[in-house]
């Protein structure tokens, strides 16, 4: 009899526990936030004209390969900047990079934007440091994980240059492919959280150099904080030093804002500005977005309307990057072409100066060392500014050429006037035409809605006799 009573009591407890769990699940479901504004703001329901976009990409790639890359290879520009543009980078989707201290909600924010919370393929989150890899979330036909070694070996992707950081890093690189409307238009990169008491050497790979690689290629950079991690240490200070010149791409996010009452939130907001002020030297203060980017409803008695407006503003910034991705790519290639052109003009000027200072009894190494050590004495940079439409703010660092010519002897290069062929034309003319005519025309065709076509005269110049506007008088 007692055994029967115990069994009945045990079954009753199980029933009560199951009922409580069902009620708890219903409560969690009921507090999930409505995320329809994400699809509306990002216009995920609208279909894109992929044919026009593919045509513009083809045209852009053609201009780069016929007008910019030959000059880039002739004067070894990649060895100066350590940035080689591949076809994968030209055709890649806009990249959104997430940076910040550990456990501030970077991975949770990605899960929320993609709507994959509580699914088997969500990014792992927790109160402790959880993300130890660089995770690239990109579009694919099916859900699968891609090892870093495979990503680097695939030439169709834009991640092959990451091999230079070594096998230890590739083991800390992982890709996740999944079919998603947002990932058809953008790629997310989640980074390991910054831990101030960890030295870079303990990671086993050059963490700052890897961050710089992603920063240089990111179209939008989310730097995420939360109310408990506002202090700035050496690693975070180094990160903001690497972000110099990219202020227009940076969006600072104060996450988990609904954990605080309004008065405390104001104080935390001011403390964040106070911490970041010495690190961001720009005329206008950076915009700080204050909200809680996760799928659950805001805490009671918080500024939920303000948080939602802030979230929509951030989504509008993301949507602008997506809609302007072709214009941004053209501007990026044009900026790259300008830098290649300036580098080539400087190398040509070094060659001319070296030939002018050489005599029959001169030691070539000593002569060129004198030129490289003090280029201002020989007016290397001032001559370029005087003869060409080059801004002094676009000139590279003078010291960089000491290292550049240390690896590449001056005798390995030809003068610009010698880089011409009868059928192909002159390299300088082609890159100038790309900067001043071809790329602006491609940009205008996109803005006017016209489908860009391919010219049949790009490779040969239609038999035009080569010209050289840079020949010395």
Number of E-type strands: 10
Q: Indicate the radius of gyration in whole angstroms.
A: 28 Å
Give the distance, in angstroms, between the N- and C-terminal Cα atoms.
116 Å
| Class by SSE composition | alpha/beta
The rough form would be described as globular
Poorly predicted runs are: 20-30, 453-473
Percentage of residues in helical conformation? 40-55%
Most strands sheet: 8 strands, mixed
- Total helical segments: 17
Mean pLDDT: 83
Order of helices and strands: HHHHHEHEEHHEEHEHEHEHHHHHEEH
How much of the sequence lies in strands comes to: 5-15%
State the strand order across the main sheet: 3-4-2-5-1-6-7-8
Q: How would you characterize this protein structure?
A:
The chain has helices spanning 2-30, 36-42, 50-74, 78-81, 87-91, 106-114, 148-153, 167-170, 207-217, 234-242, 262-276, 304-323, 325-357, 364-373, 380-387, 398-407, 427-447; strands at residues 95-99, 134-139, 144-147, 173-178, 187-190, 220-225, 250-254, 288-290, 420-421, 425-426. Helices cover 48% and strands 9% of the residues.
């Amino acid at each position: 009899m007692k055994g029967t009573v115990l069994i009945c009591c045990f079954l009753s407890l199980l029933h009560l526990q199951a009922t409580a769990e069902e009620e708890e699940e219903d409560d969690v479901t009921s507090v999930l936030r409505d995320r329809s504004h994400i699809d509306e703001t990002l216009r995920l329901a609208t279909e894109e004209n992929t044919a026009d976009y593919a045509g513009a990409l083809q045209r852009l790639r053609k201009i780069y390969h016929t007008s910019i890359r030959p000059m880039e290879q002739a004067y070894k520009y990649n060895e100066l900047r350590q940035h080689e543009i591949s076809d994968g980078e030209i055709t890649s989707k806009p990249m959104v990079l997430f940076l910040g201290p550990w456990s501030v909600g970077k991975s949770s924010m990605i899960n929320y934007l993609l709507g994959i919370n509580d699914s088997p393929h969500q990014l792992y989150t927790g109160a402790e440091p959880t993300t130890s890899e660089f995770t690239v979330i990109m579009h694919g036909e099916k859900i699968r994980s891609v090892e870093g070694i495979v990503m680097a070996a695939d030439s169709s992707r834009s991640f092959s240059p990451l091999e230079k950081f070594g096998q230890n890093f590739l083991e800390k690189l992982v890709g996740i492919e999944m079919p998603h409307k947002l990932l058809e238009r953008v790629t997310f990169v989640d980074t390991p959280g910054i831990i101030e008491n960890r030295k870079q050497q303990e990671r086993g790979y050059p963490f700052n150099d890897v961050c710089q690689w992603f920063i240089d290629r990111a179209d939008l950079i989310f730097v995420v904080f939360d109310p408990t991690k506002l202090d700035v240490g050496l690693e975070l200070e180094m990160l903001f030093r690497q972000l110099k010149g990219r202020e227009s791409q940076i969006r600072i996010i104060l996450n988990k804002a609904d954990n605080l009452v309004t008065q405390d939130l104001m104080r935390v907001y001011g403390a964040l500005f106070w911490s970041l002020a010495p690190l961001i030297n720009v005329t206008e203060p950076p915009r700080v977005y204050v909200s809680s980017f996760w799928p659950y409803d805001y805490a009671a008695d918080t500024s939920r309307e303000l948080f939602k407006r802030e979230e929509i503003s951030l989504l509008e910034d993301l949507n602008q990057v997506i809609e302007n991705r072709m214009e941004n790519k053209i501007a990026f290639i044009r900026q790259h072409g300008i830098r290649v052109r300036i580098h080539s003009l400087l190398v040509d000027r070094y060659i001319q100066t070296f030939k002018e200072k050489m005599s029959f009894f001169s030691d070539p190494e000593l002569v060129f060392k004198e030129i490289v050590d003090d280029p201002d004495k020989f007016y290397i940079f001032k001559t370029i500014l005087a003869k060409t439409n080059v801004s002094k703010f676009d000139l590279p660092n003078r010291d960089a050429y000491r290292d550049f010519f240390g690896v590449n002897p001056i005798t390995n290069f030809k003068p610009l006037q010698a880089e011409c062929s009868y059928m192909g034309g002159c390299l300088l003319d082609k890159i100038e035409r790309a900067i001043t005519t071809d790329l602006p025309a491609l940009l205008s065709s996109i803005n006017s809605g016209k489908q860009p076509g391919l010219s049949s005269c790009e490779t040969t110049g239609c038999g035009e006799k080569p010209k050289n506007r840079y020949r010395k008088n």
